[in-house]
Amino acid sequence: MRQLRMAGRVLLSVFLSVLFIAAASAATATYKAEFDQYVRALDKGDDRAAAEHGKAAWLAAEKELGDNGVTAILAYNYGKLVIFNNPTEAQGALKRAKQLQDAGVADLPTSELAVYLAFDDFAMRDDRIDTADAMRKTLLAARKTDEEQPPEYGLMWLRLANADLRGERYEKARASAAEAEKLLNLPNLYRQKAIAIMVGGAARLLPVPRKVADVEAAHNEFLRAIALFPPQKDLDSFDPTFAQALAWNTTALAALKDLGGRDFDHANDSPCKEDDCKSFVNEKTLKECGLEWDQYHPPDYPRKPQQKGYIGAAILGYHLGDDLAVHDARILAEVPQNMFGGAVLAAAKQWTLKAPPPDKLECRQFITPVAFTFK
Questions:
Q1: What is the mean pLDDT of residues 66-93?
Q2: Distance, first Cα to last Cα, the chain
Q3: pTM for the structure as a whole
Q4: Greatest extent of the chain over all pairs of C-alpha atoms, in Å
Q5: What are the angstrom distances between the C-alpha of 24 and each of 46, 53, 152, 184?
């Protein structure tokens, strides 16, 4: 989040420097000192300290200056800082900023203030259609009036896309995800961008009855998300968002199989087969390592998802030992959540090799996609 806030922080510093001069004769340095600590914390990437000092600067200005432009911008600054992690805490600061704006003692960016207030209301009640639609309307209005929109708006569109997806508003989810993707272009936001792409893909995959064209389109979206991630070093540090993209892609392949399309080989397929995508650095398949299963049985279809008619997938990570067995098995991601992972882990405990693996990391650690389909 640090890079997201830097531009606004710089503008705020310039604005405050002017206001500080005007207010210097009537105020002590308390709020200024807290603001300086806030800036230092942001520079260090310490969001917790930045929030602490940002709030202290605002509250000190309330005591020292009262209804003042400095008070307004410090309240606004603090509300923007904490809104994604603590919208309840942000609400008071943002409403105070608006109060001072409406009273004519502050000159805050009107369109941006409206966006943050709408997002705060939505974030605290994101299960309601009315707050979601109000958020959407405000963001679209800002798109028309603002020449350049900040990446924070992309995070807001992403939160909206997720709410749309949960509410099965699939067309809106796709549109919200597309807006999010356009704005999440900073290098450090590739995970959020991948999530936006996944939401768009899921909104194509989930509606039933499924059509092959829609599932193929979803599959291509998930591949785009996968391509954003570098090859991983090991299982312990495997990126969970990357794993989730692999799980969604495997689910799309399961859906294609269910529709009579391509088949999927649990035992030998890599979840990341395209030329521009590798799961691990120096990645190798079991076959490339000269390995073959002696005992291998696909997991049983769990009763609950079978009764509900679910298809899905789990991404299994594991190590292979000299004793020919699977070790350290773990579920890196699954779709839907908490449906198939237990069955996959139970099956993996029974798998054994015909011969020990080579003494190389790339032939000892693997991830395997396991798809669940009715055909």
A1: 96
A2: 44
A3: 0.88
A4: 83
A5: 29, 20, 33, 40
